[in-house]
Amino acid sequence: MKKTFFILLTVVGTCSQAQETNQKQIPQITVSGEGKVKVTPDQACITIAIENKGTKAVDVKKLNDSAVEKVIQFIKSAKIPTQDVLTQRVSLNPTYDYEKKKQEYTANQTIIINLKDLSKYEQLMEGIVDAGANRIDNVEFKSSKIAQYQSDARKAAITDAKKKAEDYVSVLGQKIGKALLINDNSQTYYPQPMYKTANMNAMADGSSAPRETLAVGDIDITANVTVSFILE
């Protein structure tokens, strides 16, 4: 019985090796393809911070909490839905100034705002700074239809790969057949705006500031694929 089982395993193993060898010997061509869709963003993810320093931890925490409350009240008054505002991080850390030889405390709270109406962008940015936000850590522009555009880019990438393969094999008098393998190497890039510090300081001082502080630009939704086709 054991001998029969061993022979069966040997036959199965031999068949698998033969199948792998046949696959390797299939004439094929491997090409890369790229699909790109330009999209005008209609949303923004804004990360702001409220930070204060002082010599007494309790006083610094109270000062920062008061500023945070004003910022949140303004965000609510701007009619930003509650579910689109998230407190990401709250910290109170001691720091020692070796030159002044004294210890200070830094209170910090980070808030993320998912802005789904870009027409409110300028008013919101000015208002949160005026309310007490003294740091804008990041602004990331997005599209509400990102999944649809990613699908369009992937299809365009496959079409591009197929066209390249057809160009190559046409010179040899051959044709391409079914796809054997598809690798997706796609990455999505979200543009980061250049928001000038001088403008933020002007807002904080209450002086006039330009109504348009940045150029949003387009999002490039790009798909990159590698495809292996059978040669006929």
Proportion of helical residues? 25-40%
Report the span from N to C terminus. 46 Å
Order of helices and strands: HEEHEEHEHEEHE
Rg (C-alpha, Å): 29 Å
Assign an overall shape.
elongated
What structural class results from the helix and strand content?
alpha+beta
pLDDT average, as an integer? 83
Q: Report low-confidence residues grouped into runs of 5 or more.
A: 5-12, 194-210
Tally of helical runs: 5
Strand residue content: 35-45%
What would you note in describing this structure?
The protein has 232 residues and is α+β, with helices and mostly antiparallel strands. 38% of the residues lie in helices and 36% in strands. It has five helices and eight strands, in the order H-E-E-H-E-E-H-E-H-E-E-H-E. Strands 1, 6, 7 and 8 form a four-stranded antiparallel beta sheet that branches. Strand 3 and strand 4 (102-115) form a beta hairpin. Helix 2 (57-77) runs antiparallel to helix 3 (121-131). The longest helix has 25 residues, at 146-170. The protein is elongated and about 80 Å long. The two termini are 46 Å apart. Residues 5-12 and 194-210 have low confidence and may be disordered.
